[in-house]
Structure to design on (338 residues):
């Protein structure tokens, strides 16, 4: 009874509180963060694609998503406010339709003997020449070896230079060929000189007329090689120079000869020598020229000379001895000129 009376005055209170979770315990911020990360990933992917693709590839992708529609008034695609335009468009109201552009290029050099005077009427001989000579003059410079030319209707067939009996005519053809080589040499020098990326390499390009024709040489320089040491693939500098040469050489009909040269330093390898190295480099230049638009039939020879024809014989290890020579061969021998 004593214990029961002791606990009779104790009151037990039970308190219960109701409330939601704190605001920072929610998951809405996770969705926003995921959207942000996705957008950044898409942005960096877009920047990588813009850097990894060329201008033509980007234009093709833009044309794919904005094709032309012959039944619509404007290019189909994204519609307003862009109206089918892409970042590659120029102007304020231009839409990409994927049309093929035709651009006029430089006309090939044609050496026409009749440009300085009119030919006598058909059946009448030139008063200044015997009748046999007046009927044997061709209308243009004959094609170089390795090319074929078909006579156009109403024009005389082109003759073989070696079969021309007239000495004055052969001398005139040779003179015009030298003039064409002079213009081509100046065009090559100007193309390299006017290109800021290649102006410093002008000293490594030697263009000169030799008895065989117009010779264009790409030389190595100290710390500026055209090919990697012991390699056969030309570097970017050599490829850029070759593109300039190809653009000018494509205008002329003459055959080409490509020769590779090395210095007197022995090649470090058991199965290879300077002979293989020079020949492989000349063949690599041949492939680049064919890919650049030079017809395969115009190539007369591709040879490797190793160190047997040094540019600087007194300095056999000079880097300038490592070179590739491209020669536009004459259609007429040098002795034909007066």
């Amino acid at each position: 009874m004593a214990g029961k009376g002791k606990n009779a005055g104790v009151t037990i209170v039970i308190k219960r509180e109701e409330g939601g979770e704190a605001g920072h315990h929610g998951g809405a911020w996770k969705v926003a963060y995921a959207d942000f990360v996705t957008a950044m990933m898409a942005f960096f992917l877009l920047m990588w694609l813009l850097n990894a693709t060329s201008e033509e590839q980007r234009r093709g992708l833009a044309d794919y998503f904005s094709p032309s529609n012959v039944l619509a008034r404007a290019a189909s695609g994204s519609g307003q406010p862009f109206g089918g335009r892409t970042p590659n468009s120029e102007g304020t109201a231009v839409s990409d339709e994927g049309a093929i552009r035709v651009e006029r290029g430089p006309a090939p050099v044609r050496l026409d003997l009749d440009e300085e005077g009119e030919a006598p009427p058909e059946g009448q001989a030139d008063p200044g020449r015997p009748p046999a000579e007046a009927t044997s003059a061709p209308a243009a410079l004959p094609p170089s070896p390795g090319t074929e030319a078909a006579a156009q209707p109403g024009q005389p067939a082109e003759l073989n230079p070696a079969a021309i009996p007239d000495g004055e005519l052969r001398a005139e053809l040779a003179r015009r060929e030298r003039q064409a080589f002079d213009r081509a040499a100046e065009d090559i020098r100007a193309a390299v000189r006017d290109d800021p990326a290649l102006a410093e390499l002008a000293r490594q390009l030697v263009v000169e007329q030799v008895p065989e024709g117009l010779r264009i040489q790409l030389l190595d320089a100290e710390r500026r090689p055209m090919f990697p040491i012991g390699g056969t693939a030309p570097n970017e500098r050599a490829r850029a120079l070759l593109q300039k040469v190809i653009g000018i050489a494509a205008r002329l009909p003459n055959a080409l000869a490509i020769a590779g040269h090395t210095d007197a330093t022995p090649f470090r390898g058991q199965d290879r020598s300077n002979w293989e190295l020079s020949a492989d480099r000349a063949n690599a230049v041949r492939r680049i020229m064919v890919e650049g638009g030079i017809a395969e039939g115009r190539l007369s020879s591709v040879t490797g000379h190793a160190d047997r024809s040094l540019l600087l014989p007194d300095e056999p290890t000079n880097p300038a001895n490592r070179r590739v020579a491209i020669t536009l061969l004459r259609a007429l021998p040098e002795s034909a000129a007066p």
In short: Residues 99 and 164 are 49 Å apart (CA to CA).
